[in-house]
Design a protein that fits this description.
By secondary structure, the protein is mainly α. The protein has one domain. The protein is built from five helices and five strands, in the order H-E-E-H-H-E-E-E-H-H. Helix 3 packs antiparallel against helix 4. The longest helix is centred in the first third of the chain and has 28 residues. It starts with a helix and ends in a 13-residue tail after the last helix.
Length: about 220
């Protein structure tokens, strides 16, 4: 339980600290380089799902926020169940990362609309603005900031539908919470089907002994 709580708390605090700093110090759609032309802190806001994917207007935004809250409750319940069963460190870590990432984006979408003024290309956001926030509860935008355009070019002309179009890899802008969810999901998939040493020892111990083949046992 302590490991799950520690991982979840550290990832959530780091995610929120970075988001608040970016929100208060960046103009919207501005950036600073991290890795030259291959990586930036680029401030945008996302009203949809992870990696900039949109989801159906105000009603879709509300539905997505409520879905995230339900998902967090379910994941927390699963973590509690697996901890009772003395789960592996990797399983606890993967689920804790997913939980922390989901919670991080819930904080944005639930509270940021009330806590901050709107960010624009010409004005930085203000915390606790006198005139109120930019959106009602559950309708806030998620702060994204990591952008890694590792390769930019033009797709081959022979490629169907997209031939000759400009292409950027990796185009989506994401945040630390998105990264935690992605890493946690990858870890969860990789550890599926693997048996822990303890489980293997139990199975061996439960096998019945083989019949004796010594000369004394021959009729």
């Amino acid at each position: 339980m302590k490991r799950a709580l520690l991982i979840t708390t550290l990832v959530l605090l780091a995610d929120q600290a970075l988001k608040v700093w970016v929100k208060l110090n960046f103009y919207y759609d501005s950036s600073i380089p991290l890795l030259g032309s291959k990586g930036y802190l680029h401030f945008i806001e996302n009203r949809g799902m992870a990696f900039g994917l949109e989801f159906g207007g105000d009603q879709g935004k509300l539905a997505l926020t409520l879905f995230r809250i339900v998902a967090v409750i379910v994941i927390a319940f699963i973590i509690r169940r697996v901890l009772v069963k003395d789960a592996s460190v990797w399983l606890v870590t993967s689920l804790s990362l997913i939980l922390a990432g989901a919670m991080g984006n819930i904080v944005d979408s639930t509270f940021y609309g009330q806590l901050f003024s709107a960010s624009t290309p010409f004005q930085k956001a203000v915390l606790f603005p006198p005139e109120g926030g930019y959106a009602p509860f559950f309708h806030g935008a998620v702060v994204d900031m990591f952008y890694f355009p590792l390769w930019e070019g033009q797709l081959p002309d022979w490629l169907p539908f997209w031939g000759g179009e400009p292409f950027v890899f990796f185009r989506p802008v994401f945040n630390l919470a998105d990264a935690a969810i992605t890493v946690g999901m990858a870890m969860f998939i990789l550890i599926q089907g693997r048996t822990s040493p303890d489980e293997g020892e139990v199975r061996i111990a439960e096998q019945p002994p083989l019949p004796s083949t010594t000369p004394d046992s021959i009729p």
